[in-house]
Design a protein that fits this description.
single chain, about 260 residues, alpha/beta, TIM Barrel, eight-stranded parallel beta barrel, two-stranded antiparallel ribbon, about 40% helix, Pyrv_kinase-like_dom_sf
Length: about 260
């Protein structure tokens, strides 16, 4: 059973989320409860975009995400990488990053291959509504059964803030999956389909926070890999102040700044 902190939309926590973005006269919460994977709080997730790259040392991150495509071979390669990660850094949570646009046939064929490597969870991008989250949940249950993995052990981090539909359907994620440990956004991906100047970022941060509050889970943000120096430190601290509990990055040079922001 994956343990995770809970929020209650009708209680005090929802009001705290609300005041962060609506009432600027009230000081925001500086440290939100973090997502929990394999019994550990996660503040930094490192995405390994180059699947041939050497896995990094464990210092500075608590989780590593391996992306997959829409074919069995990519899931098999990810499973091999997860096995390597477990041998090299047994305390690091291994994750699979996939898209919600995968159809039922692809999920049924591919997921058991990766779930057999026992990842701590999956990061699902392009979530546009709660029904898609529920579909991934069911597919994971089937994959766990096929792979002989204990039911319900694979967590879900859902990225709904990388598309407009997901942000506008924030209330639909509530109650759709007990696996859900966090919701998140990717402002860069959202900008590609909306505003090139990224003028939406404050709004998307607030909507992601409301989505997390409605679903009763923490929220995470996805850092622009090109950030460095003062801009990087500012982005990490701003994410924390805006209520994001953890940060995902594909740039290992970001890990120290993330650690500093949440220390």
């Amino acid at each position: 059973m994956v343990m995770r902190p809970r929020f209650h939309a009708s209680g005090k926590t929802f009001k705290n989320w609300f005041t962060i973005f609506i009432n600027r006269g009230i000081r925001p919460l500086l440290r939100q409860p973090a997502p929990t994977l394999s019994g550990r709080e996660i503040r930094a997730i490192l995405l390994i975009e180059d699947t041939a790259a050497t896995l990094p040392a464990a210092e500075g991150h608590q989780a590593v995400a391996i992306p997959v495509g829409d074919d069995v071979d990519s899931f098999r390669r990810a499973a091999e990488r997860l096995a390597d990660l477990r041998r090299q850094s047994p305390d690091t949570a291994g994750l699979i990053l996939l898209t919600a646009t995968l159809d039922y046939e692809a999920l049924d064929a591919c997921l058991p291959v990766a779930i057999g490597a026992r990842p701590a969870g999956v990061i699902v991008t392009d979530l546009s509504n709660g029904s898609e989250l529920q579909r991934i949940d069911v597919a994971l249950s089937v994959a766990e059964a096929v792979a002989g993995v204990e039911p319900g052990t694979t967590a879900i981090i859902g990225i709904c803030g990388d598309n407009a539909a997901g942000l506008l359907a924030s209330s639909s994620f509530e109650g759709k999956s007990r696996r859900l440990v966090a919701l998140g956004r990717n402002a860069a991906s959202l900008a590609q389909s909306l505003f090139a100047d990224r003028s939406h970022e404050s709004l998307s941060a607030g909507l992601t926070a409301l989505a997390g509050a409605a679903a009763g889970v923490p929220i995470i943000d996805w850092l622009d890999p090109s950030l460095f120096g003062d801009d990087l430190h500012e982005a990490c601290n701003k994410a924390r102040v805006n209520g994001f509990s953890a940060l995902l990055t594909s740039n290992p040079d970001h890990l120290r700044s993330i650690a500093d922001a949440y220390s």
